[in-house]
Amino acid sequence: MAHATTPTHPYHLVNPSALPLLSSLSLFLITVGSALAFHDYVIGKFILAVGTLSILSCMFVWWRSVIREGIADKAHTPAVQHGLRIGMGLFIASEVMFFVAFFWAFFNSSLFPKLPLEDIWAMGPGVWPPKGIQTMDAWDLPFINTLILLLSGTTVTWAHHALLANDRKSVIKALAITVALGVIFSACQAYEYHHATFKFTDGVFASTFYMATGFHGVHVLIGTLFLGVNLVRSIRGTLTPKGHLGFEFAAWYWHFVDAVWLFLFVFVYWWGGNH
Fold it and tell me: Who's near 23: CB < 8 A, 6+ residues apart?
């Protein structure tokens, strides 16, 4: 007869934790702080900073716990790994729909441009891009960023194959290059935003442009952090050919970020900025 503490199933029952509640409260602070900051309330920037630091802390503690569960507790059985893969796949699917909303808004505005009050009083057809908007040259910095992300996609794949081959030095080298490329991409996008001729409040083109490219930029930052954690783990030797679920998810996420950027480059920068 099995002892009462002996597991009788392959699943992992997590211990009670306050992290889900704290993460939800942190996201609430970020939402409220952002709304207030957009309307120039000083308190909004403070609330946004507190929410951001709080969610980063929750992410660090939560992900550290998941890593410990897999390495120290040996809780990531094949059944648990299968469930985690399904969960990550559903998460990426939800991210796809998140960006579909931004593309939908951009296409609706660009394919059927309207002038103010057109639904009430027909004034004539609208134009796209709107008059007064000086769009960015898709074949300048955006094209360079495209090459950067495509290259990073190859280096993260290199890291994956090296990990499967148990080539730790190549894993570290490939991940370091990928993280560096992610940082370079973010720096280039910050430079692009700083030199843009239009602001977020300059009409529908500007708002849809910054929402789509800005949220993609946030995803690049998150993906860079995700891969950076795996770089640290590879340096410490905790990534193995049979124990690298975190890296696998980071690679999935990074390829998703690459794919979204290709759509942004083609439809927002090139097609949407010239027709």
Answer: 55, 58, 59, 62
Say which range, 34-38, 71-75, 177-181, 235-239, has the weakest mean pLDDT.
71-75
**Start-end ranges of CATH 1.20.120.80 in the chain?**
78-271
Q: Contact at 8 Å (CB) between 92 and 252?
A: yes
Reported as a single tens digit per residue, the pLDDT across 147-178 is: 999 999 999 999 999 999 999 999 999 999 99
At the second CATH level, the architecture of 78-271 is Up-down Bundle (1.20)
CATH number given to 17-75: 1.10.287
- Mean pLDDT (the chain, rounded): 88
Q: Which residues are 243's β-sheet partners? A: 240
Structural contact between residues 119 and 132, judged by C-beta atoms closer than 8 angstroms: no
Structure tokens at 224: 């860079």
Query: pTM for the complete prediction?
Result: 0.84
What is the Cα–Cα distance from 51 to 49, expressed in whole angstroms?
5
